[in-house]
Design brief:
31 strands, alpha+beta, nine-stranded mixed sheet, cytoplasm, Pro-tRNA_synthetase, nucleotide-binding, BirA Bifunctional Protein, domain 2, ATP-binding, 568 residues, 3 domains
């Protein structure tokens, strides 16, 4: 391809709307253009990258026995009503009506469609295991689309669904996808970690997220440097310390704490450490108001809390709701004497002795609060955020924290959807059983953005060679020099003939402009045909990633270029 014929509208200035590096560079390098909030047009350079990522995904899915199909984007409400998700999925679901006033939605995911398809086609255990996948646009009406392709309302996704006769079969399918995803992201040239995660709205049991490590990542992950443990911060857990068996329970007393509302203020006022206090937070769920207790130096993990309560929604109670439920202003709520409110306590709280907690009246706290003696917890379960430097749950070494971009997730769904939608099979004894399912997603467009977040510098994108839009660009220093242009044309043709995807910059622009565009777009190799090519038969080959520049004889260029690309 010649740059004079390419649609590559590069920009010199950073667009004001772009907050993260990938968004800035995808706009500046002419890969995408905004159509609406969270919705983008992919220009030719982006389409080439996406095509390569899709091909890697297809090869790895097919290698594990996956079969590609294509399901409809527009899904009838009846399917979602049958699964029970039409009313609970939330405002992210794009809903629409046809001319007959029938309800439909734009697919954010395809559990319902694929399960109903398999329900109608699979009758016997002999037809499983079955791995079916598609690569397709998905739609989610994000409340706040941001970061370009990282959180959009329309995006490209690969979703695969596994169908097995039992949990043992699901374990095998899950492990196949775990390996396939590892292969995909390795082949895309990304540094990533698979981490334990929460299943969220999809549901199911075991799940792992594949996180590309990048400072700009939205998610925090905790990992151990001594073993393979890694978890999303929403999922991470560590063993709780037991109660001190030598501690003697002192008499419960109420003390005056005028104006001391925060944990830090109370601890300083009473001359104690924050970890000796009980933090009591009231939450409103779709069913009730509950009191969540964590140690004063901890934070509530709302995902864990939601799961522990089996609730659909959860939010902090406001000042009015706190007063109605406890009779006290926020900052003075505690578990002692709470009535008609369920208490869910973190195990660390139940291990405290002679702690401090709000007295459920203004300007007052209790000291010497002892769980089980002074209050009872209805639920005791891990509901706190784990922090870096805490012990790894597998080996005890210190956990470390990093930020990551989720590019893939795999779920064990079990029988959640097959039971709801009646997808059954007959086993070898003729007994009807629900199909055991898994689902596995890769954000294709997000993977492109994540690759940029991890591979860039001040000059532009640094594409891994496997997903670069082109492998190399040939730049004649002077487009007016006929011999330089002829030599550049010859190299361009030879490289394309041996399978090196090459661009020829034939524009009548200054060399500096061509070099800047090449760096901005991120071609792995830049081949410059200048005066030395005319006088000494040497061509400059510069590697975008390392900046290493070599002068290579003209007759060796095809062979050397292939050698260099094999290392990138």
């Amino acid at each position: 391809m010649r740059t004079s014929q390419m649609l590559m509208p590069t920009l010199r200035e950073v667009p004001a709307e772009a907050e993260v590096v990938s968004h800035q560079l995808l706009l500046r390098a002419g890969f995408i253009r905004k159509s609406a909030s969270g919705i983008y047009t992919y220009l030719p350079l982006a389409q080439r990258v996406l095509k390569k990522i899709k091909e890697i995904v297809r090869e790895e899915m097919d290698k594990q026995g996956g079969q590609e199909l294509l399901m409809p984007i527009v899904q009838p409400a009846e399917m979602w009503l049958e699964s029970g998700r039409w009313h609970v999925y939330g405002p992210e679901l794009f809903r629409l009506k046809d001319r007959h006033n029938r309800d439909f939605c734009l697919g954010p995911t395809h559990e319902e469609v694929i399960t109903i398809l398999v329900r109608g086609e699979v009758r016997s255990y002999k037809q499983m295991p079955l791995l079916l996948y598609q690569i397709q646009n998905k739609f989610r009406d994000e409340r706040r689309p941001r970061f370009g392709l990282m959180r959009g309302r329309e995006f490209i996704m690969k979703d695969l669904y596994s169908f097995d006769r039992d949990e043992a079969g699901l374990d095998i399918s899950y492990q196949k996808m775990y390996q396939a995803y590892t292969n995909v992201f390795n082949r895309c040239g990304l540094k990533f970690r698979p981490v334990e995660a929460d299943s969220g709205a999809i549901g199911g049991s075991d799940t792992h997220e594949f996180m590309v490590l990048a400072d700009s990542g939205e998610a925090a992950i905790l990992f151990c440097s001594q073993c393979d443990y890694a978890a999303n911060i929403e999922k991470a857990a560590v063993p709780a310390a037991g109660a001190d068996p030598t501690a003697q329970a002192l008499e419960l007393k109420e003390v005056s704490t005028p104006g001391q509302k925060t944990i830090e203020q109370v601890a300083e006022f009473l001359g104690i450490a924050p970890h000796q206090t009980i933090k009591t937070l009231l939450y409103r769920t779709d069913k009730e108001v509950v009191a969540a207790l964590v140690r004063g130096d901890r934070d509530v993990n709302e995902v864990k809390l939601l799961n522990a309560l089996g609730a659909l929604t959860i939010e902090l109670a406001d000042e009015v709701q706190v007063r109605q439920a406890t009779g006290a202003p926020a900052g003075y709520v505690g578990p002692v004497g709470l009535s008609k409110i369920r208490i869910i306590a973190d195990p660390e709280v139940m291990a405290l002795s002679n702690a401090v907690a709000g007295a459920n009246k203004a300007d007052a706290h209790y000291i010497n609060v002892n769980p089980n003696r002074d209050f009872k917890a209805d639920i005791v379960e891990d509901i706190r955020m784990v922090q870096a430097c805490e012990p790894c749950p597998k080996c005890g070494a210190e956990l470390q924290q990093a930020r990551g971009i989720e590019v893939g997730q795999i779920f064990k769904l079990g029988t959640k959807y097959s039971k709801a939608l009646g997808a059954t099979f007959l086993d070898e004894n003729g007994k009807e059983k629900p199909i055991v399912m898994g689902c596995y997603g890769i954000g294709v467009s997000r993977t492109m953005a994540a690759a940029i977040e991890q591979n860039h510098d001040q000059d532009g994108i640094i594409w891994p060679a496997s997903i670069a839009p082109y492998h190399a660009i040939v730049i004649p220093v002077s487009a007016k020099d006929e011999k330089q242009m002829q030599l550049a044309e010859s190299l361009y043709n030879k490289l394309n003939q041996i399978g090196v995807e090459t661009v020829l910059d034939d524009r009548a622009e200054r060399p500096g402009v061509k070099f800047k565009d090449a760096d901005l777009i991120g071609y792995p190799l830049r081949i410059v045909v200048g005066n030395k090519a005319m006088t000494d038969g040497l061509v400059e080959v510069r590697q975008r990633k390392s900046g290493q520049t070599d002068l290579i004889p003209l007759d060796q260029i095809p062979e050397k270029v292939k050698e260099i690309l094999a290392t990138l």
